[in-house]
Amino acid sequence: MANLPIDAEHAVVSLTMAVIHESPTPLLLLDGELGVVGASVSFCDAFGIESATVKGCPLFELGTGEWDVPALRALFSSVASGTPQIAALEIELERPDFEKRCLIINARQLAYHDICHPRLLMAVADVTDARANSRAKNSVIEHLGVRLEEVRHRVANSLQIVATLLLQAARRTTSDETRDNMNEAHHRVMSVAALERQLSASPAGDESVELRTYFTNLCSNISSSMVDDNDNVTLVVTGGGLVTPRVSISLGLIVTELVINALKYAFPDARSGRIEIGYEAQGPNWTLSIRDDGVGMPNDRADNRTGLGTNIVRALAHQLQATVDVAPGTPGTVVCIKHVKVALVSGIKDEATTALASVGGSVGWRSSRQ
Fold first, then answer.
1. What is the CATH architecture of 208-370?
2. Which residues contact residue 38 at a Cβ distance below 8 angstroms, ignoring those fewer than 6 apart?
3. Taking the domains of the chain in order of start, what are their residue ranges?
4. Mind listing the pLDDT tens digit for each residue in 211-248?
5. 77, 84, 225, 258 - which has most CB atoms within 10 Å?
6. Does this model's pTM top 0.90?
7. Would you say the C-alpha torsion 262, 266, 268, 273 has a positive or negative sign?
C-alpha cells in the first residue's frame, strides 16, 4: 500500500473497512496495540456495543471491560509475536445484564506491504446454543444409558428367577426326560441372563461384549447349577475378543448347548475330565471351539445327530454365517464354529485381538452339584 497513489490507497482502505463493516460474521480489525480500527455491525449488535464508540477503543476496554480475559491477552500476545500457539480460543463472555455467552475466538495477523502498521483480524463465533444443545444431548444419552442399565438389570433378575424355578422343578420331578428338558431350558435361560448382567454392569454406551468374561460367567453358572451330572469335570475358558451383544447371545447359547452336551455324553460313569471353550479371531474371521477329553463319539453319531441341542447349534451358527465342524480329538471330541469372511495372509493377525488374547492364560472351574 505504501507504493500506491494516495487516491488508490484511500480506495483500498475504504473497501477494506466496508468489507469489515458489512461482514455477517462478527469481526474486529485491530492495530498493533490492539486498538479497534474497524468493527462489523454484526459484532456491535451481538455484544451490545455502540458502533459510534468502538473505533479507537482498546479491545480490552470494550463494553464494561468484559473482553479483558487473560486467555485472550495470551492469544493476542502469541499472534502479535508471529508464533501463535492456539488456532482457536474458547472463552465465556460475562457482562452485567447480559446472558453469558460461549465464544470461539480466531485471531490472525494480516500479511500486507505496510509492515510499519501491523493489523490483526479477530473473528468471533457464538457457540452458546450449540454447547447448550450438546450438554442437553449428553444429558439425555446419560439418562437413557442409566435407564437401559436398569432395564437390563431387571431383565437379568427376571431371567434368574425363571431359571431358578426351572431348576427347582427339575429337582422335584420324577421323570428323567422332563428333568433333562428342564435342565436344558434352565441353562439356556442362564446363558442369556449372564449376558444381561454383563451388559448392565458395562459403562453406559458400551455396545460390545468381552467374550472371555461372558464365557467365564456362563461356565461358572453351569458348574454351580449341575443336577445329577458329573462333578469331576473342569470347565476352562481360553482366548477372548469383543463382539456385539447380538452376536454374543448366539455364541453364548452355542457354548451352553455344547458344554451341556459334553457333560451329558463325554464323561460316563463319573469319569473326570476337562472341557475347554476357546475363541480366536483374526480380523473379521473367528473360531469358537468346544473341546473335551472324554470318550468321544461313535463314528455313526459324529455327523448324524439330530437332537434339539444339535439343531439349535446349527441354526445359531447359520444365523452367524458360520459353519459347524465336529471332529474327534485326542482324546475326546472337538466342535468348531467357524466364521470366514475374507482370506487372511499367513502371519498377519489383528493386533487388538492378539493383545487381548495375550492378557490372560485360562480360567477354570470344577463343576459341582449344589
1. 2-Layer Sandwich (3.30)
2. 16, 17, 20, 21, 28, 29, 55
3. 6-126, 136-206, 208-370
4. 998 898 888 877 776 544 556 889 999 998 999 888 88
5. 258
6. no
7. negative
